[in-house]
Predict the 3D structure of the following.
Amino acid sequence: MAKKLSKKPAKKSARKTAAKIAAKPTARKAPPKEKPVPNRKPVAAKAADGASPLMTTAQIKEAFRRLAAANPEPTTELTYTNPFTLLVAVVLSAQATDAGVNKATPALFALADTPAKMAALGEDRIRDLIKTIGLFRTKAKNVALLAQKLVAEHGGEVPRTREALEALPGVGRKTANVVLNTAFGEHTIAVDTHIFRLGNRTGMAPGKNPLEVETKLEQVIPPEFKRHAHHWLILHGRYTCLARKPLCERCIIADLCQWPGKTVAA
Ligand code: SF4
């Protein structure tokens, strides 16, 4: 019959072995010491988005004043030549990077920079031309269909209302807002992942979903900054207020940001 092993002695012997190993001098090199980062405090791991206190009206105004001074004429990083190519580029950018879209669109737009030409190009050729972009099959179908719809229902022009834009295949509220803002100069705010994070994190416009953040931003952004607010926030989120490791040390609104997890002292 097999002998039952007692747990207690095993633990003791394990401890002894561990103590011996710990006492034994090792030939291994000690890991290099991390250089201290000046003026940095640890990120509060539990400082969840949405938990920040609200920014004041004066703080929001000052934040946009600084963002505007740093980049007076911000714009999209997508390559486009007219409202139609902008619309297509934004549709293609869903769950893809602007850089990835910009690699594929020059060849596409060289062949089709109007709804009529795109409709004539057809879904199969569009798919071939955008196959480096994620979800290219669905996107090719949507681009072909939206081009046909623009020709059939809008005289080959991109409509200037949210309602008409959102009725196009592959176009949601965010895409419609980008087109209205960038192509037509409307004061719309397209809440993407960056703006959603920033609105919550900074305490500027906390919300549980993109529409809530968009509505709050519309309420709190001073009128003189509304035209470009969308791009200032996107660019700040994309290059400074990164999702995992925000670069608070070089953030120009760090003293205004209310996020408890920011990595610089207030
Ligand atoms: S201080 Fe940090 S968390 Fe706040 S906006 Fe700047 S980068 Fe983002």
User: Anything to note?
Assistant: Residues 205 and 258 are 11 Å apart (CA to CA). The pocket of iron/sulfur cluster is lined by residues 201-202, 240-241, 246-248, 251, 253-254, 257, 259, 262 (CB under 6 Å). The two ends are 69 Å apart (CA to CA). The chain has eleven helices and no strands.
